[in-house]
Amino acid sequence: MTDTLAVQELWIRRYHPAPEDTDVSLVCFPHAGGSASYFRPLASALAPVAEVLPVQYPGRQDRRAEPPITSIPRLADEILAVLESLPRRRLVLFGHSMGACLAFEVARRIEQRSALELLGLVASGRTAPPTLRDRGVRSMDDDGVIAEIRRLNGTDDRLLLDDDVIRMIMPAIRGDYEAVESYRYEPGPRLRCPVSVLVGDDDPQVTPAEAQGWRDHTEGGFTLRRFPGGHFYLAEQNTQVARALTEDLARFR
């Protein structure tokens, strides 16, 4: 195995073969504490229309032995280098929550200094970049972190009652919250690519009105879609989200 392929397989998960009739890859960025496997159902639904490439951050699942990266800019730089090594050069970026912030920073880097062709950005469950929503989760004790996770309803409560599971996942969760809560937007040019925003109607992290702020970060088209549900509406609305992304993939080309 070449070094390049080894790095790709460390960072990128492929749950299904790429369709033969497309040269577009949908790169998926998980939420804080999340992993590439969160996007497995979506990858299955989109398998006929795009190569779906969920990103696996350090510090979780098969990368649990690695320390998490606690900086959004550093994560963006690392992921850009991996994406530039892929054979397919036409990309759509899709990020949920912290992943939306990270996808935005990768998108900026692509447009500013990469030969990759960025077709579009899809941001889910996240306020526009200049908006800070720092609840200080990175400074909470374990009980406080667990309470925040429960508030967002993103993890099965049964897992949060298992001490072994808590010890296993807590370093990645804390590292991710350190990254996203310390992130500060640096003003710069608007994206040239279109931006599509997805949001749950009852998301405590972002209202549909706040999600409109993404419009100010693109010179391309802007679309906002609302779905029933809270911060993790994707789990409940997988079919509808897959349909929306299929429409975006077709429109961005």
UniProtKB/TrEMBL annotation:
Q: Which GO terms describe its biological process?
A: lipid biosynthetic process
Domain of life here? Bacteria
Q: Which SMART domains match?
A: PKS_TE
Cite the Thioesterase TesA-like domain residue spans from the record: 27-249
State a single Gene Ontology molecular function.
Answer: hydrolase activity
- Which of UniProt's keywords are assigned here? Hydrolase
Q: What Pfam families would the database entry show?
A: Thioesterase
> Gene3D superfamilies per the record?
alpha/beta hydrolase (3.40.50.1820)
Q: Which family does it belong to?
A: Belongs to the thioesterase family.
Q: What is this protein called?
A: Oleoyl-ACP hydrolase
